[in-house]
Records
---
Amino acid sequence: MKRKKQDFISSLKIWYKKNKRDLPFRKTKDPYSVWLSEIILQQTRMRTGLVYYKKFKKKYPNLKSLSDARGEVLLKDWEGLGYYNRVKNLHSTARFIQKKFSGTFPSSQKELIKLKGIGRYSSSAIASICFNEETPAIDGNVFRILSRVFGIKKNISSSSSYSYFYKKSLSLIKQFKNAGDYNQSLMDFGSVQCLPKNPLCGDCIQKKICYAFIHKKQDCLPVKKKKAALLKRFFNYYVFSYKNRILIKKRGESDVWAGLVDFYLEEKKKKIKEKNKINNTVKKLITKKYSISFFDAKTKLSHQEIFISFIEIKLFNSSVFKTIEKNLDLLSLNKKELNKLAKPKVINDYLKKIS
Ligand code: SF4
């Protein structure tokens, strides 16, 4: 096994030298830039992440500029990336470091992980890349590569597997010598060569020692238990409009899309038929002439699928509009004002469709 580990590491080094991805945040060891890239790239494809990384670096070149930014402006800049807690945590951590450490990033994994929004993976990535600390960053790439090369059959969805892979990786990172390069080489190898589906085994530098290749087990490794079924939710959004104004609502903090804006929402247990769509509260409030139309949409989040019915109610009477605004605790905005606020992608897509 010792020999196999050595072979794996020397091949990985050769591969990385030749295939290292040319990414802007790879050219620096500045913890602010590495942290920003790590947070943006969580749950985001590289191509999209790069666009946002460049945009953020241009607008907020350092920790101080990010900590000075206004929360609503940051939310708007983040719009389209999803998982908005990431940007809220970025902001609060930037402010915390600015205040508590006079703008200097903590330099060890143990300190970094205490910061809001920085978990096991990001703390290890930052500590290894910026401070050469031998701390392995364990993600799906690492689970997959090590499972395949070393024939590990542990269920990677089980929480106990993490420490197994961490220990395994710890012995490898020491042999690699450069901790940041070790973690980054696995990120790249997993994204370019040892892909989740159809890994490029034919020209893989590891194929002579790779258990999965030798035993044709690429599709069975890593071992993953089945995912829980997606939670299905049914949202009825009431879109009240009068002339060029529309009624919106700011979302609370405890559900999806926390802090963003949407419309008056009624959540249902199942999809209901069109003619029954208007609820009694709304019916009572629309005392004058109106027109109604419907538009359906669907969106998928990590653990839930949301089926949306937009119920467009066009009002022709300003006092009815104002009564609805007051009684349903909504806010009247024109399009320009609405454009400035951060909204879930599905709402933005809908607004584009109706504009
Ligand atoms: S041989 Fe195939 S499965 Fe093995 S490490 Fe290379 S790409 Fe991955």
Note: The mean pLDDT is 93.
---
Amino acid sequence: MIEIKHLYKRYGRFLALNDFNLKVNEGELFGFVGSNGAGKTTTMRICVGLLKADGGEVLIDGEKMLRNHRKLAEKVGYVPDYFGVYKSLTASEYLHFFASAYGIYGSDADRLTDELLDLVNLSHKKDTDVNGLSRGMKQRLCLARGMVHNPDILFLDEPASGLDPKARFELKEILKNLSAMGKTIIISSHILPELAEMCTSVGIIDKGHLVLQGSIEEIHRAAAMSSPLNLVVNEEQIDDVFAILQSNPFVQKVTARGNILQIVFTGSKDDEGRMLASLIRANILVSSFYREEGSLESLFMQIVGNNTKEAAKRR
Ligand SMILES: Nc1ncnc2c1ncn2[C@@H]1O[C@H](COP(=O)(O)OP(=O)(O)OP(=O)(O)O)[C@@H](O)[C@H]1O
Ligand SMILES: [Mg+2]
């Protein structure tokens, strides 16, 4: 299990991580989602020992890690969001190079390289120059590189960005296999639905702080509740409708676009029914009453959307 406790990180006067807390259980495929600049890369780089924190601790199986670089390096693997340029190295040589960094040479390195290339479906590109690999293949080679020392926990920073649907599917299958091998995987993205389809649990980071965490089922439930109710009424009755809605304790917010009202509603399905009944009783001509689709996106926007202007100002 990996626990991140009260993590702080400053870049000059800018507070990039602000009391960041997170717990990920063994074997989980955890989706780490946040907008550009939310603090995903910063968190990951601290967790793998590439960046120093200004406060807080990272614990693996209860053991403090931030001052124990050697142990940390054994336990974690990191796949960054960029791919360095390695001129004139084949895929196989590239992995041999990283194996040697961990003291693995000779036939052991040959065997390991073959296994890793097989794991990421790149055996057929063994002798291809890395600069001649497609983006998706480079991404997978990078993943193999992160696995060279067989870490328990793997951090992948935006591995799916820029991949086509086929490459994304292949990546997902590889991650599922790694997960079945018992690895704990933490994967970042700025797209919640993309993570939701492959992860067992998800956390949302905003302005350097974890704002929501849950199993994928919990996130889907929260998403269903978060999407606004849409109500279409006769335009001349808008004022009456507003008065009725404002007296309903489950109505948090109403916005109008012409005769279409969007309602942030916190009640149950029955409460929804009772609100509709109250409108009908008041002779409001309701022509439509429905929930928005794309609810994972709306959940994400509801949580982080309001802060985008402020975040832009801070940067
Ligand atoms: N080396 C640095 N110097 C100064 N500010 C930095 C540095 N690295 C990151 N930041 C700032 O810290 C904040 C968090 O950045 P970080 O890269 O962790 O975000 P992110 O969630 O990974 O974003 P993205 O989705 O764009 O990759 C941003 O506002 C960024 O500008
Ligand atoms: Mg990043």
Note: Confidence is low (pLDDT under 50) at residues 307-315.
---
Amino acid sequence: MCLAGNRSPAQVLRRPVPDRLIVLTFDDAAVSHATYVAPLLKKYGFGGTFFVCEFREPPFADKTKYMSWAQIQGLHNLGFEVASHTLTHQHVNKMNRTQLGAELDSIEARCRAWRIPRPVTFAYPAYDTAPTATALLPERGYRFARAGGARTYDPAHDHPMLLPSFSIAGTDTAKVYGAIRQAHDGRVVILTVHGVPDVAHDWVTTPPALFEQYLRYLHEHHYKVIALRDLARYVNVAEALRLTPRYENLK
Ligand SMILES: [Zn+2]
């Protein structure tokens, strides 16, 4: 038996993880992702992943709050990753395998209809994780799934279906810079961002002036900023899937 956390870094890694590697992820299909975030990322040449869903409350039909699918397609056309956050923002620990499969089907079908590639990454609504999801996602071709936990991603130890991230919501800039500066010695910093601003769920908003300040900092300090799918350049996912899934410290 050679499961359980004893894969050597050399087996899991395709190449060394460089210092200053940041993954930017954006949740919930906030309208500001299309109107404000994407143009700003383009200006700096940064990558990013947009985890989309069709929120029920407030409803996805309200286009003052959420992107349309045409705008989501526009993100793909600009070179960004569009990925799955379930259809209805349903927590994976409240669904069985069939229900989760249906949620994944719905987002995949919409992507197909809008000529967006089938998603290969996933973000857990409310950072809730479950073994149902860590088993089903890779069977369906997903390579990485992101939760929370306010800690760095260590590819040699963290299971690819249970990636931790830091939220940058709010106005605590010291917390955000403290997170960014941990991207060294094989550790990747994944950031969770909601709307900039977030007019659907104001408790997760990031003020545009601060967001712009963070991007400028990443640019001036020569960080490499990528989408979640791009981690496959560094991580051998088939090997990494043999790591022990650990469900603690992901909220
Ligand atoms: Zn969400």
Note: The first helix runs from residue 9 to 12.
